[in-house]
């Protein structure tokens, strides 16, 4: 069983690993200012955001990355999956986005499609290494 990188329990893939990179709650003046110059609906800005910040998941091993990207691929192939819900912040939840656009992206699926393409590129060696192993042995 693949363990969570921070706690001693099973790793369950969650797309919030990608989205959480952009949460600026209680860091609006620092991280929020840095990320706030990017518009997630603009393709150029979105690609830059993902390259610089969205894939900064050094805490994840090559196995975690493989599982997470496989999960993302599954969700991208699910026409009923609600990608916008990942950007919704409940009133009683501590969280905030760097720009208003994050609360209602024009096409949130495009955001995750770009994550998938760029992660396959950036994590290519990790993904190849994990693919050579039997996941049931993790």
Task: Provide an overview of this structure.
- By secondary structure, the protein is mainly alpha-helical.
- It has one domain (32-137).
- It is built from 6 helices and no strands.
- The longest helix is centred in the middle third of the chain and has 15 residues, at 62-76.
- It starts with 15 loop residues before the first helix and ends in a 7-residue tail after the last helix.
Kindly summarize this structure in a few lines.
The protein has 138 residues and is an all-alpha fold. Helix content is 43%, strand content 0%.
Features:
6 helices; 138 residues; mainly alpha; single chain; 43% helix
Average pLDDT, rounded to a whole number, is 92
Which structural class is indicated by helix and strand composition?
mainly alpha
Number of distinct beta strands: 0
Give me the Rg, rounded.
15 Å
Q: How many structural domains in the coordinates? A: 1
Strand content: under 5%
Distance between the termini: 5 Å
Number of helices: 6
Shape: globular
Helical coverage, percent range: 40-55%
Parts with pLDDT < 50 across at least 5 consecutive residues: none
Reported for the largest beta sheet, the result is: none
* Oligomer status: single chain
Architecture blueprint of SSEs:
Elements: H1 16-19, H2 31-35, H3 43-54, H4 62-76, H5 108-122, H6 124-131
């Amino acid at each position: 069983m693949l363990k969570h990188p921070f706690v001693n329990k099973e790793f369950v893939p969650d797309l919030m690993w990608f989205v959480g990179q952009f949460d600026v709650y209680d860091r609006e003046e620092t991280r929020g200012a840095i990320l706030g110059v990017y518009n997630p609906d603009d393709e150029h800005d979105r690609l830059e955001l993902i390259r610089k910040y969205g894939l900064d998941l050094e805490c994840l091993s090559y196995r975690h990355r493989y599982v997470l990207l496989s999960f993302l691929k599954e969700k991208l192939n699910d026409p009923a999956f609600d990608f916008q819900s990942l950007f919704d912040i409940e009133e009683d939840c501590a969280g905030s986005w760097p720009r208003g656009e994050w609360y209602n992206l024009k096409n949130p699926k495009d955001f995750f499609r770009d994550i998938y393409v760029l992660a396959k590129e950036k994590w290519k060696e990790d993904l190849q290494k994990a693919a050579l192993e039997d996941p049931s042995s993790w």
